[in-house]
Write a structure and sequence with these properties.
Strand content: 35-45%
Number of strands: 5
Largest sheet: 3 strands, antiparallel
Radius of gyration: 21 Å
Helix content: 25-40%
Shape: elongated
Distance between the termini: 63 Å
Number of domains: 1
Number of helices: 1
Structural class: alpha+beta
Amino acid sequence: MKRTSVLLLIISFLASFVLIGQVSTSSVTGSVVDASGAVVPGAKVQVKNEDTGVVFDGVTNASGNYSFASLPPGPYTITV
């Protein structure tokens, strides 16, 4: 009985590492500037996952920066 409990504990421990390894995300950050190099606050930014077609929308902040966190890994197209 005790041996079975230890074996189940070991299996559970190892399985948790497999699950942790499968949780992966990416992030995209950048800034938007115009032709003169001035930052563009309030610009609409769209990030599209090319594999899934899922689109994420955002807006640049007062410094012209944008950030998309916790994106699924994959190829993306960014449109401003």
